Structure formats: C-alpha cells, structure tokens
Fold:
Amino acid sequence: MSEPSLASIIEGLSSYLAYEKLSGTQSVEVEREVRQALLEEEAVVVPAKEAATGVKVNTVVAVEADTAPVVRVDGMEHEPTLLFLREGELAEAVEMEPFEGEQGALLKKMIEAMEVPLARVCVVQVVVMEGGMKEAVRAVLERVKPQATVVLGGNMLGALLGRSVMIGSSRGRWIELWGARAMPTHALEHLLGNVEAKREAWQDLQAVMKWVGSF
Structure:
C-alpha cells in the first residue's frame, strides 16, 4: 500500500476537525506522525474558496521548526494595488473574513475612502508568532507582489523587523519588506474611537494613494 500524500492527510484532518467542532470539542491532539509529516513541508496551501463576500480566500500554513503560524489571504492574489497586513488572534485569522466585525468594517471604510476597488485589494491576516511568522509573510509578499503594502500596527511591524518598535515614530515613512514597498500605520484596534490616530492614519494612506497613483 502506498504512503498517504500530504494532501490526503490535510483533507482527512479537515473533515475530522469539522466533525469534532460540530460535536462541541474545543481541542484535539494531533498524532506525532501527522505533525512530522506537516513539518517536513515548507508550506501548505489550502485551495481557494469563495468567502461570503465573494472574495477568494486562501489559508496558508507556513511551517518552521515546531511552530505553524497561520496566514489568511483574502482578495486579489497577484499584483494587487494594495495589500494590508493586519494582526489577528488565531480564531479570527482562521475564521473571520477581512471586513467582519468593527475592525473589519473600519478597514473597508479606509479602502473605500482611498477609492481603490475592493477587487484590487489583498488583505493578509496573520497570527504574530516568534517562529516562522516572518518567513510566512515573506512568502506571501514575494508571491503576491503588491504595488504597495500597508502594515497595520506596531506589533505587526515589530514582528516583521525582529525588534520592538513604537508605531508613533515609525508610521508615515516608507520601508521595504523583501522587495515590497510598505507603509506602517496604526493598528485597526487602536483606530477605533481614537480621532487623532485616525487623522494620522489618513495622512499615511494619502501617501500610499499618491504612490499607487503613479502606476
């Protein structure tokens, strides 16, 4: 009998976890052999599916050492006008669509104010983890190749740069992330109810608008 492929393992796990979730199970233990099979792959990409908003969704699981940071990619996957990098908790990164909830609604308003069609936008939600997170985001940026990237929040920026940062002194200035032109600004959570932060974020987004207008 031939060895099961990684794809068949993933498919079996997906079905099993879906059943356990419906049964009310909160957590499961993955056998060592299955974990090892996953860790032997540099990256596992689950085929795209249509979200409720009609935007294509891909969940990319990048693996390094003993960690598996989850990166959710929504929207245009090849050379979008804008790519937004936002931090989310594990459940949000896996289950929530990019424009759900208060933060998601705010993000949508920001994009609409920039007058960029949603069809030309890619939203990347990532669980900030020490191991493998930077490599996972790098793989997405190198694959998607956005015209401009907006990094939302100091936690996200610091995790990508590998050091602590103060978003107040880092925002508003272009940086380069693995060949991608990126603009740091405030996190969506910080923008909610903070008029001054919204004003600063809008200044940052205007700089992004000016840049993408040159294409």
Notes: The longest strand covers residues 43-50.
